[in-house]
Structures are given as C-alpha cells and as structure tokens.
Records
---
Amino acid sequence: DAKTTQPTSMDCAEGRAANLPCNHSTISGNEYVYWYRQIHSQGPQYIIHGLKNNETNEMASLIITEDRKSSTLILPHATLRDTAVYYCIVRVTTSGTYKYIFGTGTRLKVLA
Amino acid sequence: KAGVTQTPRYLIKTRGQQVTLSCSPISGHRSVSWYQQTPGQGLQFLFEYFSETQRNKGNFPGRFSGRQFSNSRSEMNVSTLELGDSALYLCASSPGQGTYEQYFGPGTRLTVT
C-alpha cells in the first residue's frame, strides 16, 4: 500500500498562505491523493482530492508534481479556524474496491 | 441534510466484554467505512460496507466485525475487548464507491478498563 509522509507540525501567520507538503513516492498510477483535516474532537473533514492535475476549490488548492511523488495543499489565506491536523491520504484500489491509507498528519497552527 | 451520526458518543467497557457501535449515514449514502483512531497508530481503516456487503477490510483481528443493514445503517462489533482497543472509532459515509469524498461522524470514544 502506498504511504504518505508529512511534516509533524507547521506554523503559519494568519492571513498568509499555508503550504502543506506531502510525499507519496510509492503511489501507483490510478491512486488518488486526498486531503482531510481534523479539528480537535471532531471527525475529519474533506478538503480536496486529485489524481494528476492541480485542483482548486473554495477551501484550498492541490498541487501535484508531474511524477506524482509529492503534492502540496495550499490554504491561500489561513485563518485561526484553520488550526487543525491535516492528513494527506492515498486512496488504494484493490480488485475494484477502495480504501484510504491515512498518513500521520501535519499539525498546523495558525498564529494571530 | 443531517450529517453522519454515531451512537453512543462515549462508552466505558471492561476487558473481555464485547461492544457494538452504531452509525447512521447521510440519507442516500450507500457506503459506510469504519476507522480506528489512536494516539500511537493514528487513523487506521477497519472495513467498508456497500449495499450490505463488506467490500474491503483493513488489517485488524477477527474480533472486529461489522454489518450493514438495508437502510445503509451500519454497526461494528468488537468482541473480547482488550486494553489496546481503547480508541476513537469513526464512521464515514459516501454516496458510493469511486472518487466520492467521505463524510465523517463525530466518533465513539471507547475506553476499555
């Protein structure tokens, strides 16, 4: 199964862009990269996902390198409410079924 | 739409007992996945059910089992509880399999004493 590697923690100033890296060097060609975040005591919340191309939605942007071995989640203007643990996940496909392999996550602290 | 609900929210059990946790997915969602979250191991996939069939299973012992009903509600059962089973158990639902995002419930915090 593909694994992801993320920095344990990061700080970001409020209003600045938060760039969260993820390494998934063993990812296979049909495996998607997902990002979720978990705010203390809550269930994880979906942010964005992608396969090859860069993706953007109202919450964030996802930049995937051409070789697909790494990606970066960008929160364009971080707020205090973005303080959370961010998980980079690979969705593994096995015989037509899917499961999500969570990394250890990056604890992002947005500073006022 | 109501979100994913899990009951109970908190549970304390004794070693050797068994426990059943319940998950009600978002209306219309047919896929339910279960995860175990602990400080040491992080979030680990337990199993996924789709249309009452277990479609995928993580690397957990047979003491962990689950089922899904015709209304998509799901239960997971842990038998012969061990201290190491203390964790936050999360349920997630999605419309189906594929590139759908998963919507997580608040979790059930199980403490085994």
Note: Residues 8 and 77 of chain A are 21 Å apart (CA to CA).
---
Amino acid sequence: GAGVSQTPSNKVTEKGKYVELRCDPISGHTALYWYRQSLGQGPEFLIYFQGTGAADDSGLPNDRFFAVRPEGSVSTLKIQRTERGDSAVYLCASSSGLAGGPSETQYFGPGTRLLVL
Amino acid sequence: DAKTTQPNSMESNEEEPVHLPCNHSTISGTDYIHWYRQLPSQGPEYVIHGLTSNVNNRMASLAIAEDRKSSTLILHRATLRDAAVYYCILRAYNTNAGKSTFGDGTTLTVKP
C-alpha cells in the first residue's frame, strides 16, 4: 500500500518568505509526527497529532512554526518569516494506534528538503 | 527522556554479521527499545523493537541485556544495502511517548 508522502520533495525560498510543507499519512493512521533533521544529525521532534489535535508541540522552536491537521488526515507544517537556520530536511511520520503507545512503529516519509537563501 | 549512547561509526565486511551496540543506562522499567535505520536521502525505517526479551524478525535480531542498560542490534549477514545510519531510541510509557528522541546514531559502512 501507499506509504507516507510529503510534498514538495524540495523547496527553495528566500529569507523572510512563508512556506508550507504537506504530509499525507498512511490511510487510517490516527497519529502524525513532524521532525526536523539538520545535516549530519538525527531527526529532532517538532510536534505530534492524535487525530486533529496537537497532543505535544513542545519541539516547535518558536512561534514562526505552526502545524495543522484539520480533518485528522493530511497535515501542513507552516513556517513564517523563514530564516537561513530553518534549512533542513523536514520529516513526517504516522502510526496506526493510539499516539503515545511506546511499542508503536512510526512510518516515515521521504522528507522535504528546505533551503532558505 | 532517557538517553542512548551509540558509537559514531562502524565498519563491516559484506556477508559477515554486524553487532551494533547501544547503551541506555538510565532506562526505566516501562521504556521500549526501538531501532530505526536511515538510508541515504530517505526517511528513517523501522527495524525492530523490544522491552525485555530478545527479539527476532526478518531484518535483524535485538539482544537486550538482563539489566536492560544496553542492547545490541544484530544483522546476521550484512549486505551493501545495509549501509545506513542506525538509531537506537527509547520510548517511554508516559504522556511524551508520542515523540521519539533520536541521537546521532551509528553510521554503518559495509565493505564488499
């Protein structure tokens, strides 16, 4: 079946611009996660959703970052007034059961590579 | 969150077994041990997970120390396609269990 998909695969923008990154989770998965990965480092947690609500947004670095999941499926990560330091790969993952289950498997998408010039 | 420690890099020869270690001395009794791997230019991929007992699946085996303060991911016959960054992660049975805290992982190089 289809895995997690993310669009666009690559995004180049200028400092100060607004960007939106989209994630389509595996159909029926109730939990959705966003991570950010800088070059040479492991993924860094940003936020996760259970259904439509953000269950934990403690990883969002500041108020320029915001994520929504209005219908409990597709999610959009929004970054306002982008800065060069926001350049990274943004990864999305989904899982099938109750978010927070410690034995759950997360299925990752290929990521969106964001470059802020 | 409990922390994991892994070597930065390891090398293996093709078709030989590989043992990837992970230390997690501050693990709590309800933390699950997960392993993911990330191939170049891809998102992380689930490998295996366990709680107390050793686990086997088609990809690998997970050996968990009796005191649970360390674990080892075992690839029985490394192939060139196993070259990746391997992450050992602890997931806690609490309100923060939805997130995974990745370290920098172990970069595995497989030589033909």
Note: Chain B has no helices and nine strands.
---
Amino acid sequence: EAGVAQSPRYKIIEKRQSVAFWCNPISGHATLYWYQQILGQGPKLLIQFQNNGVVDDSQLPKDRFSAERLKGVDSTLKIQPAKLEDSAVYLCASSFARGEKLFFGSGTQLSVL
Amino acid sequence: GDSVTQMEGPVTLSEEAFLTINCTYTATGYPSLFWYVQYPGEGLQLLLKATKADDKGSNKGFEATYRKETTSFHLEKGSVQVSDSAVYFCALHGSGNTGKLIFGQGTTLQVKP
C-alpha cells in the first residue's frame, strides 16, 4: 500500500517569508496529524484532524501557522511569516481511526535563514 | 501534563552487544506505550507497543515491558547489529482519547562493526 506522501522534501526560506507543506495520507485514513520535530527533540503535535474537522490544535502557534484538510483527504500546513525558530522537520502522519497505528511520512525539512 | 523522558544519547555499541534504552513516563491513567524507530533518511516507524501493565511488546529482536509500578518502558535487545543504527523514540498515547502521540526526545544508537 502507498504510504503517507509529503512534499517538498526540503525547503529553505528567509525569515518573514511564507511557506506551505503538503501531505497526502494513506487512502481511507480518517485521522491526520502534523508534527514539528526540532533537531535533537522528539516530534511535537501541532494539529490533528478527524476527517476535515480539527480535533486538537492546542499547540499550533495560530498567529503564524495555519492548516486545512479540504474534503478530508489532503492537507496543507502554512507558516506566515516564518521565524528562525521554525527551522525543523514537519512530519505528517495518518491513521485509520483515532487510537489506531500511526503511519508517518518522510517529512519536510525546513530551514529558515 | 503527559510526558516521556528518555536516556540521553548517543549510545555507541559494538555489534552483538546488549542494548538498553531507558524510558520513563508521566501520564494520567494507564496509556498505551510505544517505541518508534527512525532510520537515516526515512520516516518514523512503529517498532513495538504495549497497551496495559505487564504487557511485553516485541519485534525484530527488540523487547519492552510496560512497568506500571516504575512508570517505565525500557527498550532492550540482546544482540545489536549495525543495521539497528537509528534514532529510537519512546511515546505514549496522550490523555483525552484523541489518539495523539507524545514523544520523548529520542535516543541515537550507533552500532559499530
């Protein structure tokens, strides 16, 4: 079965610029997660979707980060404007349902200069 | 809130050595516990899990036992191989029954031939 697809693989931007990441979960997976993994740390949940509704966005910096999951399938995560501390790997994961096994994409590595 | 603490890395071992990576957690109730592995250039993969006290998860020669009394889930392997070199993350299901994972900071394992 196809895995979780993410793009781009790498992105380099300057601070105050905007950036967007895309995620295509495994077909049929209702739950989608975006995690931020800063170098040397474990992944931290930014936002969780159940179909196209938000379940948890308590750790999403809403003044600069936004995410959507149109039609309950693909999802995009946007940062506007980016800060130096946003440099990290952004991981997308999906699961068939809440509490089920998570499948992770390879991530997008963002460098903010 | 819920949290996971792992031993500091990197851990450097010779091939066929015994591996232990310590993991302790703080959580409300009795969450499911997981070990994920991240091989170089790849996404996070579930290695093993345990869903209740005294359960032992195992996979690919790795084992971990859910210890409620010590709130621990230490990862062990009797004889490591060079191919086991990766970053290992301990994680738990966060409270609130959303299915989200809370990760430790990760432990890098390097196995030398």
Note: Chain B has a mean pLDDT of 93.
---
Amino acid sequence: IAGITQAPTSQILAAGRRMTLRCTQDMRHNAMYWYRQDLGLGLRLIHYSNTAGTTGKGEVPDGYSVSRANTDDFPLTLASAVPSQTSVYFCASSDQAGSTDTQYFGPGTRLTVL
Amino acid sequence: AQRVTQPEKLLSVFKGAPVELKCNYSYSGSPELFWYVQYSRQRLQLLLRHISRESIKGFTADLNKGETSFHLKKPFAQEEDSAMYYCALKYSSASKIIFGSGTRLSIRP
C-alpha cells in the first residue's frame, strides 16, 4: 500500500507557465487537501475536498484550482505560475467517515517558479 | 477568526533536559487540537491529539481552555526528538485544519 503519492518530486518552472501537481491516495479516504509550506508561515491550506465531486477554498486559494473527479485523485493546477508560488506543496487525506480526523500526508513537491 | 500561534521558531535543548513546545490558539468554538511532527526526510505525521489524552514517544499535551493553550511536553529529551513540530486546530465540521508556523526542536548531545 503506497498511501499518498505526489508527482513530481520537484519542478523548476518559468513564470507564466501552467503546471499540475498530482496527488493520488489508495486508502479510499473521502477527504483530501492541498497545503503549501513556507518558512516561517507553516502549512497553509490551499483547497480541500470533502468527497469526490466537491471542492472548497482554504486560506490561500488564489492562483490555484483543483478538481476531484474520483476518490483517489486530487490534482492541483497553477494556471499561470508566479514566483510567489515557489513553495513546497503537500497533499493530504483523511477518513472523515471514520471521524478520526487524522491527516495523512504525501512526501511533498518542491516547486520553484523563476 | 481562528488562529494557532507557535511563538518559538527554534528551540534547542540538551539531551535529557525537559522540553516544552508552546502552542496557543484562538477559536470561538469547541477546539480539537493536534500535534504533527516532521522528522528529517520523512513525511509530516500525527504525533498526538488532545481527544485521545495519550502519551506518544514520551510526549504529552494538555488542552488548557482557560489559557487557550496546548503545549507539548516531554520530561527528558532524546536526540531522536529533533524535528519540526506543528500545532494544529480543527475548526470546522469539514475537518479543515489550521496549522501553526512550526517550531524546530534541536536536541544537543
């Protein structure tokens, strides 16, 4: 069982380019999340999805979009990347139905926008 | 608005010394609080949650509603405790969690 996987591991991107970060989980968790981790700011929620077919905005959603076509996948898209989106991005999932609220995190994607 | 504050960016203590990582929160509802840990080259993972009232790896944390705090404590630090620690608050029924800015704990031999 892989848990949560993210791809790519790291990426250098030119400003203005479109980029999709991939996230897949095999735990059949209904809730999934995207965070960005920045020094001194901790983790900030970008978008979340409580169940397949629904999404919601977190603390810092501007410049990002997500989709949740099925339970397993939750891609994050930067339509036109800007340098301020340089960060480490973490995907997470949780089993809300089990009410444990424990979030399980992926290994992260390090994104650099030049 | 809900907020989680970790006032210390870095905490350095000697092996065997007591450790206390501070966390304060602001939330008008009934809080659910967690501590997450990220060891070097590992994924962020749950350390403990206040509901469970458990001790994990010798760490404990007590929710103090009067002081709106959830400090993480360990009586005797070990070198393997060196990591980044995040305090987190669940603030809606959608299981949205807000994280503090993190404290890097460094244990000196």
Note: Chain B has a mean pLDDT of 91.
